[in-house]
Amino acid sequence: MDLDVLNMFIIAGGTLAIPILAFVASFLLWPSALIRIYYWYWRRALGMQVRYANYDDYQFCYSYRGRPGYRPSILMLHGFSAHKDMWLSIVKFLPKNLHLVCVDLPGHEGTTRSALDDYSISGQAKRIHQFVECIKLNRRPFHLVGTSMGGNVAGVYAAQYPEDICSLTLICPAGLPSTTESKFIKQLRELQESERIDKIPLIPSTPEEMADMLKLCSYVRFRVPQQILQGLVDVRIPHNDFYRKLFLEIVDKKSRHSLHENMTKIKAPTQVIWGKQDQVLDVSGASVLESAIPDCHVYILENCGHSVVVERPRKTANLILEFLVLLHSMDNNKKQA
């Protein structure tokens, strides 16, 4: 082989080896950095831009795509201890011309965390209203989506600020009493009885606890490498004290059944999506909402747990789009009548 050609292959091989070695080193030594890079990559790939909005001395962090148009904007509220990027799996299947906004809830990720803040569900709903006013999202009524704790906040928001929203999607929302005790609720009761409430299953501090949490939240069994589990834990550990404080706040009497206490005030057309095999919040909550909200459309997903957004992103995105199309069609029929 010609020496120049051989040198070219050696140089090319060395050039390729550098990013490969960097990736392997990140995976083995800094898995949490790899997770952050993963979210950064998917935000860019999906066209989501990160911005900040300020209300007095309070800062909200959010991502968005598109501009307000003839179709309603969509505001998405994540679950407990998550962040705005959890919606990326849904965003992937939504049209690029839709105006989407995903915000970090109070104390999460890039949004202000203050020991003086009110982290009750009603307190969080007030903060989200401040955010909405900051970015003038309520110039026209928008569609509000919330999952788990974010679903509780979304439901209370819809009840307290009905003029802001045109429709609502609740995905496995918290804040409801249940006739059937879920596996998670049973675990909590056992922890309370043994006075080990610091071991909350949704606040893992080891890779093993993270794996248990994933099993609890998902019906689908994801095979997650040990290094990724470690990375997921590393990202969360600095925030675990806050998550414990927040958890105790939202299960307190003031917030535990906030959605239930406000659901009869919800006047907007409402879509409820729930995983049939949800082990965190029992699926029976769907019928509670259906009986209380006048215009309520319930969808139960087979072979799906609490993490609907992760387990069934395409189906969830399609259900939201179909719901919006249905409402648009009904609105047109009313105008023509």
Automatic annotation (TrEMBL):
Q: How does it sit in the membrane?
A: Single-pass type II membrane protein
Q: Which Gene3D superfamilies match?
A: alpha/beta hydrolase
- Keywords, in A-Z order: Endosome, Hydrolase, Lipid metabolism, Lysosome, Membrane, Mitochondrion, Signal-anchor, Transmembrane, Transmembrane helix
Question: Which GO annotations describe the biological process of this protein?
Answer: acylglycerol catabolic process
Catalysed reaction(s)? 1-dodecanoylglycerol + H2O = dodecanoate + glycerol + H(+); Hydrolyzes glycerol monoesters of long-chain fatty acids
Could you say which EC number(s) this protein's record lists? 3.1.1.23
Q: Which Pfam families match?
A: Abhydrolase_1
Residues forming the AB hydrolase-1 domain are 72-313
Q: What would you give as a GO molecular function for this chain, any one?
A: monoacylglycerol lipase activity
An example GO CC term for this entry is:
lysosomal membrane
Keyword match RNA-binding: no
> Where, subcellularly, is it found?
Late endosome membrane; Lysosome membrane; Mitochondrion membrane
Q: What does this protein do?
A: Lipase that preferentially hydrolysis medium-chain saturated monoacylglycerols including 2-arachidonoylglycerol. Through 2-arachidonoylglycerol degradation may regulate endocannabinoid signaling pathways. Also has a lysophosphatidyl lipase activity with a preference for lysophosphatidylglycerol among other lysophospholipids. Also able to degrade bis(monoacylglycero)phosphate (BMP) and constitutes the major enzyme for BMP catabolism.
What is the protein's name according to its record?
Answer: acylglycerol lipase
Source organism of the structure: Eurypyga helias
Species lineage, top-down?
Eukaryota, Metazoa, Chordata, Craniata, Vertebrata
